[in-house]
């Protein structure tokens, strides 16, 4: 039996074939995955998106954790920045790395390809609430990004594990070199541009103690705060920290808990950085890949006991103000 497809089955065609979700009057929302991800239609990004559309975009983001807008071909950095400002307070590009202007952080394959699950900038106290990533230059194949739902990952834990992680804290650091193992195996060593980027990334040291389970400031859900900026769990040895980290990360990155996006020029992805991890897949050889990221200000995480994260090293006030509670 031969199955004929009119066109290859991609993330785009799956989303296009899905029925629009009810309850939205000004945008079209089609699920991309069962547990996270939706494609948004009817929006042209920029600073003049109507308030009623902005409100529905925020609602879709809270519900689906990551949303995708196709065919934004007329949008450049200015339009991305203006649209981001409608969704929240725009931060500086990064706590340690120089950006392209006041808001844009280039994600460029020339400065490295980190095959690593992470939530953006968890080594500071004021973790960004959301990130907006726009495709600028893409390889002819590969270069996809995968997101995972950290809220559902928590919900999937056995009650005994929930009881453990509800009271657990972790130390996050920008000096934790999550790509070291890969680089040790790389023939020819680290590229000069990549080494320069790493030196810049770590020239200021940040270390923050976060709860492993935080309360989402908008939805009230419990969500796992993990990722490869974690140095160790408070009170546990290095070996025990590593074993427990791997166990918890497996719950986060189960395939049924993820969505994978195949980028096209004109694409914009927006994700809830308080309820997801993501992974940029290095599967495009030496082709060039460049995307532009903007982050939005977030709150200091709060544990299930109402305790806020605490700074061990570094001051991130120059990077981001604190978001208004529940914003």
UniProtKB/TrEMBL annotation:
Keyword Lipid metabolism appears in the UniProt entry: no
Gene Ontology MF terms in the entry: 2-oxoglutarate-dependent dioxygenase activity; metal ion binding
Gene Ontology cellular-component terms listed: cytoplasm
InterPro entries documented for this protein: AtsK-like (IPR051323), TauD-like_sf (IPR042098), TauD/TfdA-like (IPR003819)
Segments forming domain TauD/TfdA-like: 29-295
One Pfam family hit: TauD
Alphabetized UniProt keyword annotations: Dioxygenase, Iron, Metal-binding, Oxidoreductase
The protein's required cofactors: Fe(2+)
UniProt similarity note: Belongs to the TfdA dioxygenase family.
Protein's name in the database: Taurine dioxygenase
């Amino acid at each position: 039996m031969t199955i004929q497809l009119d066109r290859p089955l991609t993330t785009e065609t799956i989303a296009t074939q899905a029925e629009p979700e009810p309850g939205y009057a000004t945008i079209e929302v089609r699920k991309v995955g069962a547990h996270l991800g939706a494609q948004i239609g009817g929006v042209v990004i920029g600073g003049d998106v109507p308030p009623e559309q902005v409100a529905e975009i925020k609602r879709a983001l809270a519900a689906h954790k990551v949303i995708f807008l196709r065919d934004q071909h007329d949008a450049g950095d200015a339009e991305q920045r203006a649209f981001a400002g409608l969704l929240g307070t725009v931060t500086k590009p990064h706590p340690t790395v120089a950006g392209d202007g006041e808001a844009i952080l280039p994600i460029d394959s020339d400065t490295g390809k980190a095959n690593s699950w992470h939530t953006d900038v968890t080594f500071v106290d004021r973790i960004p609430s959301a990130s907006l990533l726009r495709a600028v230059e893409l390889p002819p194949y590969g270069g996809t990004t995968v997101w995972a739902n950290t809220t559902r990952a928590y919900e999937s834990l056995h009650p005994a594990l929930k009881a453990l992680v509800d009271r657990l804290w972790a130390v996050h650091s920008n000096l934790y070199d999550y790509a070291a193992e890969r680089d040790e195996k790389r023939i020819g060593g680290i590229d000069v541009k990549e080494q320069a980027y790493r030196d810049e990334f770590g020239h200021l040291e940040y270390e923050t103690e976060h709860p492993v389970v935080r309360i989402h400031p908008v939805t009230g859900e419990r969500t796992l705060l993990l990722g490869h900026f974690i140095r160790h769990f408070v009170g546990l040895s290095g070996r025990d920290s590593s074993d427990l980290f791997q166990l918890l990360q497996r719950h986060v990155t189960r395939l049924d808990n993820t969505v994978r996006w195949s980028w096209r020029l004109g694409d914009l992805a927006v994700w809830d950085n308080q309820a997801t991890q993501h992974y940029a897949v290095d599967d495009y050889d030496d082709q060039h890949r460049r995307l532009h990221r903007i982050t939005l200000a977030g709150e200091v995480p709060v544990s299930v006991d109402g305790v806020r994260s605490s700074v061990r090293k570094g001051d991130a006030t120059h990077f981001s103000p604190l978001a208004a509670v529940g914003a």
